[in-house]
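Review session, final week

We close the course with one last complete record, chosen because it touches almost every idea we covered. It is ATP-dependent Clp protease adapter protein ClpS, a protein from Clostridium paraputrificum with 99 residues. Go through it on your own first, then we will talk.
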Amino acid sequence: MGASTSTIQKTRVKVKEPKRYKVIMHNDDFTSMEFVIFVLMNIFNKNEMEANDLMMKVHKGGSAIVGTYSYDIAKSKMEKTTALARQEGFPFKVTIEVV
């Protein structure tokens, strides 16, 4: 009688991380600073201090990255911000870029 042996193969599956996207706010001469702070606190979940700092970066630098998210979340936040800005009569521009 012969001994039986079996071989077990292990397969490694590499899970690729999804791409990340930067949400960028752009300065304009019409959108109020208060509105930008409101958006940062209510859509981007920043505290008052973070929101104020980011708003000043947008204001002084012309634009600023306000968050990095998966595509769906970045797009959703961009669309919510743009819709709210239009509702309030502001031409506020928000874009997304791959990291």
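Two points worth writing down before the exam:
Strands lie at 21-26, 63-69, 93-98.
The mean pLDDT is 94.
Good luck, everyone.
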